[in-house]
Amino acid sequence: GSLERRRCLYLHTGRACCQMMEVLLAALILVCSSVSGGPAGGYTGLPALGGIYYYQYGGAYSGFSGADGERAQQLDQQFYQLKLPIARAAMAVGGCLLVFPCVLILVGVLRVPWHFPAWLLIECTLYIVIAVGTVPALYYFFHSLLSIYNSSVCKEREQLYQSKGYQGFWCSLHGAEIAAGLLGCMAAMAYLLSAGLAVRDYRTVHKQKQKPLQL
């Protein structure tokens, strides 16, 4: 009835729209971060897939043979192990950032801020903390990735694949990692905007709850 309509009205507010944008950004961060946490790829991964991958990459990397093939396999595994911790950390952060606005949307739909206006101040504080924490998190993300790409394992792997004429194994940030960083910056700005909207809504709710007392 009227209660259900009032709950649905929250989804049309500015704060809810901003929170839904945060859900989208967090989901994209999670997807981009998962690229670095995928299979080892390279010499060991693509041949095992078979089919279109087998023929696209030259008959399962037929350019490798003997010791070169074994070394390529070792380097793929070592490179994968180097990137795995930072990839898992980024995916964990993306997952948390995905859950957080979903919880806040549910809280808004249940009209908790109306019954407990102080919640909006708590929400504002959480948003500011997350937005500020995003800065060192992004620094650690890119610093760790650059350290991996500057490692001897990555350099040797790049040279080995280039010696066989294979491209795409460069020791540099790829598009998904750059996109994850840009999405993190956009998310931080969205959190600051949500913090401001929470303060605005707190003032609005506080004024509305004071009106009966004034009458």
Automatic annotation (TrEMBL):
Main location: membrane
PROSITE patterns recorded: MARVEL
A GO cellular component entry from the record: membrane
Keywords annotated in UniProt: Membrane, Signal, Transmembrane, Transmembrane helix
Membrane topology (UniProt): Multi-pass membrane protein
Residue span(s) of domain MARVEL: 10-203
Recorded coiled-coil stretches: none
Signal peptide: 1-37
UniProt-annotated location(s): Membrane
Keyword Hydrolase part of the UniProt annotation: no
Domain of life of the organism encoding this protein: Eukaryota
Chain segments annotated as transmembrane: 86-107, 119-142, 178-199
Full protein name: MALD3 protein
Gene: Marveld3_1
